[in-house]
Amino acid sequence: MTVPETTETRRGTRPDKRELILDAAIRVFARNGYHGSRISDIAREAGIAYGLVYHYYKNKEEILRSIFEQRWSGFLEALEGIAAEETPAQERLLSVAALILNAYRARPEWVKVLVIEIQRSARFAEPGQLDAFAQLFDVVGRIVRDGQERGELRRDIDANIACTIFVGGLELAITSLVLGVAEADEGDDGGRAYYMRVARTVLDVFLHGIGEGERGE
Amino acid sequence: MTVPETTETRRGTRPDKRELILDAAIRVFARNGYHGSRISDIAREAGIAYGLVYHYYKNKEEILRSIFEQRWSGFLEALEGIAAEETPAQERLLSVAALILNAYRARPEWVKVLVIEIQRSARFAEPGQLDAFAQLFDVVGRIVRDGQERGELRRDIDANIACTIFVGGLELAITSLVLGVAEADEGDDGGRAYYMRVARTVLDVFLHGIGEGERGE
Amino acid sequence: MTVPETTETRRGTRPDKRELILDAAIRVFARNGYHGSRISDIAREAGIAYGLVYHYYKNKEEILRSIFEQRWSGFLEALEGIAAEETPAQERLLSVAALILNAYRARPEWVKVLVIEIQRSARFAEPGQLDAFAQLFDVVGRIVRDGQERGELRRDIDANIACTIFVGGLELAITSLVLGVAEADEGDDGGRAYYMRVARTVLDVFLHGIGEGERGE
Amino acid sequence: MTVPETTETRRGTRPDKRELILDAAIRVFARNGYHGSRISDIAREAGIAYGLVYHYYKNKEEILRSIFEQRWSGFLEALEGIAAEETPAQERLLSVAALILNAYRARPEWVKVLVIEIQRSARFAEPGQLDAFAQLFDVVGRIVRDGQERGELRRDIDANIACTIFVGGLELAITSLVLGVAEADEGDDGGRAYYMRVARTVLDVFLHGIGEGERGE
DNA sequence: CATGAATGAGAATTCATTCAT
DNA sequence: GATGAATGAATTCTCATTCAT
User: Fold this and answer.
1) What pTM was estimated for this model as a whole?
2) Chain D within 8 Å of C120 (Cβ-Cβ)?
3) Most buried pick, A52, A120, A172, C71, via CB within 10 A?
4) Using one digit for the tens of pLDDT, what is the confidence trace for D108-147?
5) Which residue has the least CA–C1' distance to nucleotide E9?
């Protein structure tokens, strides 16, 4: 249910150069987009020499593909773990919300790159494997349908639309924070508590709606 | 409340070359991103010689700026019109949902480019003018807060978060359609009815929530 | 039986840029080899801007391939014309020798590039089409075998070996001249008479041999 | 009169790394040309780490120079030995043909590299020392002129042209075999007998010519 | 207005060479 | 000695922009 904050430490004490480059690339891609980023930007961001990038990666595209494969698969595993839990659908959706929000909080660049750049290159949507979006929808959709069957969620709402609202709400909630429309700087917990509150609000709206102002009293 | 389907006709019967180029540019930018698009791509898409692009636009960046100025301002005007209506908040939110969904449906490329490319280039966020996202949030936020004050909407939900959930839900609802996760092919109305249904579902979830499965019965 | 001295004039008065680049490339390749030649060298040799080369050719390899296709096919046509003549084998071989020697004389670079660079890249030996060398051997071999059948040439010599000796003799005769081991500067006919004498000598040795010194008296 | 089949054994039983690298370099240069070959290609061909190449050779050019110095000087010594023999010119020419053909047979790459790459780099033609080709022509030319003076060979043929025909015939005879135009697979002697036959044919044509078909009967 | 050839700065990629381990 | 990571200059290739026709 958590995404590793740093990846350099995965393979021991030595900072793995492949990881180092990948992390730098994510930050740079998030900032300027894939096409707007130069290899030299990535190298500078990683603090290494120009040509070394090519020692580890064949070309720019392979870097993007590696980002996808590594980061997304880890994320998806965590999601699948949540979906498989035996708890009520509402609880699992809260976990999903918290996972996504925390991923955004800890590594907003990851999500930006995964969402924007990879969706764009059809290369990655190889036949047989669903693309990233479809996978995410699939997992959330399963939780929602499961909840509908168990009578925990309304059945008169299309599960597909419901789950896109849920995911979309989360996405934009964070995007707006990232873009500075809202502020997250509350306390010195790095925003964790705040994001948890956002997660609960999202779920609250998703489950009970915002209508019927009398309730608000 | 509607977005013009074709823009070439705005300035008369003759297909204005400036519009022709702009429309082509939007399609190309949506496909490959700003940096990934070549002037020659735009020219080919527009069916003209590529030297001609420079007769009408100073350079590539001016094309992007023009897209923003023309398309977004029209969209924002329509939004402001809805916000100013004297109807209940719920009705205005339905109008907003329908507007956004229809814009997506008629011109998905517009939204992609407006959302992704323009957010990316800080050039456009000139001091004094809020960027596109902030403007959209601002309008929707005003409707929500207005509804809370009138007692039409719950007051215990943060208005900012609520409105991002609303917009985000709409955004992803469409994105998933665009990406082919869901299907819209119902009748020969170009999907209009279907999108209206989606708009109502989004609003339904937003207002009443999906929780409490017993209701579904 | 002649090879055009200049190719720029082929398509009229306007100097065809594709030809211009090709001619420049041949000179540069002959001087430094394919791998040793830079695109900038070719551009400078042709007197044009760097990037223009890429306006006409996709990349460096396509230039080499074009050289081969254009130059070799013209050469081979001339050879086939000679082989089809109804004259004695000896006369046709003299024509072949003169053709090859004249090609060398007028455009030594062509032959260098054709012989050295193209033989090296297996890319050009596409299945179904004989490679350049095999084609040349084939034509000369046909003349030799034809002469043997008519009783004009000895039948106790393997036709394949004989024809390689013939071609090889011609090749090295020129190579040595190109490399400066021998001198060709006789009169102001550009060496034409001298090369004709070489052609006759080659044929003389080929037909009558150099052995039996008593004849020399 | 023979060229060592393997060179690794020259300096004892331990396969000398310098030799190992040189042999690998010859194969790679023959395949891709000097400029088209990378140090890493040579290292891989030799089965060693590529940093190690720089322990034994200062740089890439020194490798080429070493190839030339080692391989060519050995070859030239053998040639000079033949030229100095007191046998008839015809016999010595047969020896030369056999030497060249055997060198080609055992190490076609050597000849390719010596002939093509070294001729190309003017660096090696240091003043005072004739380049490789000139040296070869010089030796063969001496034999031919010697034979003419003794009355063993025709005097009405230019010695220079005659010797280039001879060498050229040999060269192409082999080249055609290397390129697969002819086949050498006779018995399991590695083609030795076949090449001897080619050598005799070359000499036969060179001495007696192929003309006057009546002889063929 | 239209066209597409021409230019050259800039980015991707390669690879000889150095160097720490 | 041996290894392969690290460096960066050199080169290929791309493409925005200009310009002659």
Assistant:
1) 0.76
2) yes
3) A172
4) 788 777 766 766 654 444 444 556 667 888 899 999 999 9
5) C51
